[in-house]
Design brief:
- By secondary structure, this protein is an alpha/beta fold.
- The protein has one domain: Rossmann fold (3-Layer(aba) Sandwich), CATH 3.40.50.
- The chain contains eight helices and six strands.
- The longest helix is centred in the C-terminal third of the chain and has 17 residues.
- The relative contact order is 0.13.
């Protein structure tokens, strides 16, 4: 509800560039951001999505936090809020950056990898931060530079769809910006 109200409020303001609205969410906020970005009435209002240390679903996190054996028999109906992000990311079409703190001891980094792999956006990227923990990933050197490079590439891609920016000083599987995995 708050996320929808925030977008609606931004669209009432004339001093904001409505063509470059970025939605960011960390942990549970990432699940809310994914939900918002996949809603039909909001998907065209969002330019980019950035999620950090986000889980695949509430039931998956319950299994991680409380143990698999106890919860394996619980049907989905027992969960009030499910936040089934692993299903919703298949609907994403906007540029999406997945930031994964590889030292996250709360949300397993494999969940971010899974969300990235299931995402249907043609412009998606997984940024792996080796020393990044659940709440402090943003403090690691190179974090903001990588975020800025992703956003700049989205901006350039909008201006010239045939343009592909190359990354400097960043380890990627290839030197192409849209490579699947980047490590800082």
């Amino acid at each position: 509800m708050d996320a929808k109200a925030s977008i609606d409020y931004l669209y009432t303001r004339n001093d904001i560039n409505h063509s470059e609205i970025i939605i960011f969410g960390r942990s549970l906020g990432g699940a809310v951001a994914i939900d918002l970005a996949t809603r039909e009435e909001y998907t065209n209002k969002i330019w980019c999505l950035v999620v950090e240390n986000t889980f695949t679903s509430i039931p998956d996190m319950a299994k991680v936090l409380l143990g698999w054996r106890m919860l394996q028999y619980f049907p989905l109906v027992f969960y009030k809020n499910k936040f089934l992000s692993y299903h919703k990311v298949k609907q994403l079409r906007i540029p999406t950056l997945f930031i994964s703190g590889m030292a996250d001891s709360l949300v397993p980094p494999r969940m971010m990898f899974e969300l990235h792999n299931r995402c249907s956006s043609i412009r998606k990227q997984l940024l792996q931060v080796p020393a990044g923990t659940h709440n402090e990933t943003w403090q690691i050197q190179g974090y903001y530079h990588s975020l800025a490079m992703f956003l700049q590439s989205c901006r350039l891609k909008n201006l010239r769809p045939d343009y592909d920016i190359k990354m400097d000083n960043v380890k990627t599987e290839s030197n192409d910006l849209w490579s699947t995995v980047q490590t800082i």
